[in-house]
Amino acid sequence: MSPTCADEGRVARAEAAYLGLAVGDALGATVEFLTPREIRSQYGVHRELRGGGWLRLRPGQVTDDTTMALALGQAILADGGAVAPLSCARAFDAWMRAKPVDIGNTVRRNLVGFRRSGDPCAPASEHDAGNGAAMRVLPVALALLDGDDAAIRAAVRAQAHVTHHNPVSDAASEFLCLAAADFVRGETLRQVYRRRIRPLLSGWPQFSYKGRRRENPSGWIVETLQAVLQALMETDSFEACLINVTNRGGDADTTGAIAGVLAGPLYGLSAIPPRWLRVLDAATREACRSQARALLSLPRRA
C-alpha cells in the first residue's frame, strides 16, 4: 500500500526534526561557551555552519546532542519500539566507550555508576537538572508518536533516569518530547502553546520565558528551555529561530539542538536552509534521515 499524503507529511516533518537537531547542534557548537558580546565581536551575527569553537570541530560536525539521540534511537529500534532502561543504559555506555567528541559531567558520572552497579536508573539527585536528558528525547517522540501522553511520559523517564534522575529534568524532557510529537503530527504553534507550553508554565513556573531575555544560557535545563521558548515564540522561521537561540551563546549547541527539534517539524523540511544541509556532516545527515523513517515505521508505537 502506498503512503498517504498525511503519512508523507509526517515522514518529512520527522526528518525535519532530526535534521533540525543536527544542524542546530552544529551551528551552536561554534559559539558554545561564548557570551553574546563575544559572538558579535567575532562573527557579527553567527549564521553559518563554520565549525571551530572550543572543540575545534569540522564545519557541519555535531556533538553529543545528536550522537546521543542517534544512540538512543538505535536502542529503541533494536527493542522493536520499546524504551527499556537497561537497553538505553547499554547504548549510552557503548556511546561513551566510543569516545564522543564531548560528554556532559552528569552523563559521564552516572554512566560510570551504571558500569559499577549494573542498575540503569541513576540515584535521584537535586543537582542533576541539566539538559542532557532533554536534548536526546526525539527518538522517543517518533517511536511513540501515536501513543497516549502517559505512555510517552513514562518512556521519556525510562531513558532520562539513566543519567538524569531529577523532577525538573523530567518535566522539561516530557514537555519537549510531547511538543515535538505534536509538531510532527502537524499541529501549529498556537495549538502547541495551548496544549503544552501553557500547562508547562502553569505547573512549573520556573520555566517562564516571558520578561528578561535569557542570554548566555547555562546547561541548567531551566535556562536552556527559557532560551529555546523565547527563540521559538519570537521568530517566524526555522532559520531565524536557530540564529536567535545560538547567538545567545552559553550552552549553544544544546539550545540550538533542542530549538531545531521543535522548529524543524513546525516549519517543515523545506524550511531548513539548503546551505546548512549541504555543510552538515554527510554520514550524520543520512543517519538522521534513515533513523527518522525507521522509527516512524515501527509496527507499534503505543
The gist of it:
With 302 residues, the protein is mainly α.
Key phrases:
302 residues, mainly alpha, ADP-ribosylglycohydrolase fold, 14 helices
Q: What's the CATH topology label?
A: ADP-ribosylglycohydrolase fold
Q: How many distinct domains?
A: 1
Instruction: Indicate the low-confidence ranges by residue numbers.
Output: none
Strand residue percentage: under 5%
| Average pLDDT metric | 96
Give the topology string: H per helix, E per strand. Answer: HHHHHHHHHHHHHH
Looking at CATH, the homologous superfamily is ADP-ribosylation/Crystallin J1
Number of helical segments with 4 or more residues: 14
Strand element count: 0
**CATH class (first level) name:** Mainly Alpha
The rounded Rg comes to: 17 Å
- What would you call the shape? globular
End-to-end separation: 22 Å
Determine the fraction of residues in helical runs and give it as a percent range.
Answer: 55-70%
Helices and strands, with pairings:
Blueprint: H1 5-29, H2 36-43, H3 64-78, H4 85-97, H5 105-117, H6 138-143, H7 149-160, H8 167-184, H9 189-203, H10 221-234, H11 238-246, H12 252-267, H13 274-279, H14 282-296
Helix pairs in contact: 1-11, 1-12, 1-14, 3-4, 3-14, 4-5, 7-8, 8-9, 8-12, 10-11, 10-12, 11-12
